């Protein structure tokens, strides 16, 4: 699990350094250390959003005795698409000297989709299904 976490941090760090110049609307300023800090902040924010979503989904499913699964399935899908963009927005607020979001549409959403794809690719094979 530690290796997977380190792989996610390294992949997001490389994404901040090499991919962010090609996405309009999101600017990264800094070196490797700044990218590492931004990656750590992004992963912390992303894990926090995942935890918050799981608590919300669990509470809806428990209070509706499982009938809320119709609602929570859609909620999980939308949140999975938007949570990397929200985590990136949070990083831009915490580390404004390194990550600057010029426009939410399309810059932050596209970059969030890209970071979400990087995070999805780092999952083990059994969780992708």
Question: Key terms for this structure?
Answer:
129 residues; mainly alpha; two-stranded antiparallel sheet; 5 helices; 2 strands; 75% helix; globular
Beta-strand percentage?
under 5%
> What string gives the helices and strands in order?
HEHHEHH
Q: Calculate the terminal CA-CA distance, rounded to whole Å.
A: 19 Å
Q: Got a strand count? A: 2
In DSSP terms, counting alpha (H) and pi (I) runs of 4 or more, how many helices?
5
**How would you classify the helix and strand content by structural class?**
mainly alpha
Please, what is the average pLDDT? 85
Radius of gyration: 16 Å
The spatial strand order of the largest sheet comes to 1-2
> How does the overall form come out from the CA principal axes?
globular
| Total number of domains | 1
Secondary structure layout plus pairing:
Layout: H1 2-18, E1 26-28, H2 32-63, H3 69-94, E2 99-101, H4 104-121, H5 125-128
Antiparallel strand pairs: 1-2
Helix pairs in contact: 1-2, 2-3, 3-4
């Amino acid at each position: 699990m530690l290796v997977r976490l380190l792989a996610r941090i390294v992949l997001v760090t490389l994404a901040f350094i090499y991919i962010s110049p090609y996405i309009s609307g999101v600017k990264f300023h800094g070196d490797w250390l700044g990218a590492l800090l931004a990656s750590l902040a992004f992963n912390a924010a992303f894990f926090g959003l995942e935890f918050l979503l799981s608590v919300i989904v669990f509470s809806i499913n428990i209070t509706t005795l499982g009938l809320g699964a119709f609602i929570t399935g859609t909620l999980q899908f939308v949140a999975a698409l938007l949570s990397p963009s929200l985590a990136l927005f949070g990083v831009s607020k915490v580390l404004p000297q390194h990550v600057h979001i010029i426009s939410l549409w399309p810059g932050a959403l596209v970059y969030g989709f890209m970071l979400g794809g990087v995070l999805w690719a780092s999952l083990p094979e059994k969780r992708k299904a």
